């Protein structure tokens, strides 16, 4: 099904939890009706409002959204830094809603790697590049020889073997973030999380960081979730999730056209959660003045939503705007030509 309007790009509708890369791929992250409420004095702030999310093992995704939309809160829950208030959240075989403090420490140490936006939070300033990479392994009790071999393999992947003895302040910002990714991969976690890893970098350095994330994803089959504002992220990930007001509102990805030019087309899907909720794009709501009451009619496989301009108590028939605006038709089969709409 998809939403259509008279002109412009039309985001399609996808049910939350659908398979993304293949029906045989196992889910590694699964969130159902996830809530997070922060309590400050007598004030409660709802950061996540029933998030449904599925990420398959070995997938690389990005989460984007405005400040305060809940994306960093979601990442903190997946990393074990915050506990959810309600709902279900499973990462691998672990239930992060009902997990003991002891298991949570082991999860954060061995099952997940984390990269912060501020490079100063990722690296110990008085340790060399190689020592920073080996530090998590030393804490986990890994023997010297295996951790030396693995750190050198990671440095080789970074193209930074010649800088193994340098201190963090002797590196550029982009190099520091690359070392931070290697440090997060130190204990070979199956999940890598990154919160705005390119927020302090220019576009050229940002591209290099995302190339490294893609390399780690493909080479070591690590599942990666990135929170970012980087505008070119769609070219580097499998799909982009858009979060708004504490819910996943839509997801998008690039699809090749198979033309000789090698161009790709952008596809955006609205997400329908398990109880049928969806968030309409704000420009649709503004154009049709959809606020308060609306009518929904089902015709075959299409659902038409129209704003109500006369209150039901008035006894007048429901009507729409002057030019009808075509409202929003939910339900056209994906891939149907615009001429058929």
Descriptive tags:
single chain, 341 residues, alpha/beta, Rossmann fold, 2 domains, eight-stranded mixed β-sheet, four-stranded antiparallel β-sheet, 7 helices, 30% strand, globular, disordered C terminus
Question: Overview of this structure, please?
Answer:
This protein has 341 residues and is an alpha/beta fold. The protein has 2 domains: 9-272, P-loop containing nucleotide triphosphate hydrolases (Rossmann fold); 285-340, no CATH class. Helix content is 24%, strand content 30%. The chain has helices at 71-79, 101-111, 129-139, 144-158, 173-184, 203-220, 282-288; strands at 3-4, 12-15, 27-40, 43-56, 60-64, 86-91, 94-95, 112-115, 191-195, 223-227, 239-244, 247-256, 264-272, 294-299, 302-307, 328-330. Helix 3 packs across helix 4 (144-158). The longest helix is centred in the middle third of the chain and has 18 residues, at 203-220. It starts with a strand and ends in an 11-residue tail after the last strand. Residues 1-8, 17-23 and 319-341 have low confidence and may be disordered.
Tell me, what's the shape? globular
Task: Give the H and E element order.
Answer: EEEEEHEEHEHHHEHEEEEHEEE
Q: How many domains is the backbone divided into?
A: 2
Distance between the termini: 12 Å
| Low-confidence region ranges | 1-8, 17-23, 319-341
Q: Give the C-alpha Rg.
A: 23 Å
The main pleated sheet reads as: 8 strands, mixed
As a percent range, the share of helical residues equals: 10-25%
CATH fold name of the largest domain: Rossmann fold
Strand content: 25-35%
CATH structural architecture of the largest domain: 3-Layer(aba) Sandwich
Report the mean per-residue pLDDT as an integer. Answer: 82
**How many DSSP helices?**
7
Give the class from helix and strand content and strand pairing.
alpha/beta
| CATH superfamily annotation of the largest domain | P-loop containing nucleotide triphosphate hydrolases
Order of strands across the main sheet: 2-13-12-11-5-10-9-8
């Amino acid at each position: 099904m998809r939403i259509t309007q008279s002109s412009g790009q039309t985001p399609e509708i996808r049910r939350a939890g659908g398979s993304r890369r293949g029906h045989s791929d196992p889910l590694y992250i699964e969130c159902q009706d996830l809530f997070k409420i922060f309590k400050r004095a007598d004030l409660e702030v709802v950061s996540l409002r029933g998030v449904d999310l599925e990420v398959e093992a070995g997938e690389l995704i990005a989460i984007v959204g405005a400040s305060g939309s809940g994306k960093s809160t979601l990442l903190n829950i997946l990393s074990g830094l915050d506990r959810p208030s309600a709902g279900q959240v499973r990462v691998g075989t672990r239930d992060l809603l009902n997990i003991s403090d002891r298991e949570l420490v082991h999860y954060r140490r061995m099952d997940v790697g984390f990269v912060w936006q501020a490079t100063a939070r990722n690296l110990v300033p008085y340790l060399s590049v190689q020592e920073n990479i080996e530090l998590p392994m030393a804490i986990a009790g890994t023997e010297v020889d295996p951790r030396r071999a693995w750190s050198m393999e990671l440095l080789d992947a970074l193209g930074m073997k010649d800088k193994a003895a340098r201190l963090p302040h002797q590196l550029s910002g982009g190099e520091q973030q690359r070392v931070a990714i290697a440090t997060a991969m130190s204990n070979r976690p199956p999940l890598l999380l990154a919160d705005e890893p390119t927020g302090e970098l220019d576009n050229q350095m940002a591209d290099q960081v995302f190339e490294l994330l893609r390399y780690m994803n493909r080479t070591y089959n690590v599942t990666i979730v990135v929170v970012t504002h980087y505008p070119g992220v769609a070219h580097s990930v499998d799909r982009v999730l858009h979060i708004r007001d504490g819910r996943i509102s839509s997801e998008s990805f690039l699809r090749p056209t198979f033309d000789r030019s090698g161009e790709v087309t952008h596809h955006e899907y609205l997400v329908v959660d398990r109880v049928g909720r969806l968030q309409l794009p704000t420009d649709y709501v503004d154009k049709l003045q959809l606020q308060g009451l609306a009518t929904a009619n089902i015709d075959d496989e299409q659902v038409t939503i129209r704003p109500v301009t006369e209150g039901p108590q008035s006894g007048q028939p429901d009507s729409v705007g002057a030019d009808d605006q075509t409202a929003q038709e939910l339900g056209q089969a994906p891939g149907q030509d615009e001429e058929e709409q």
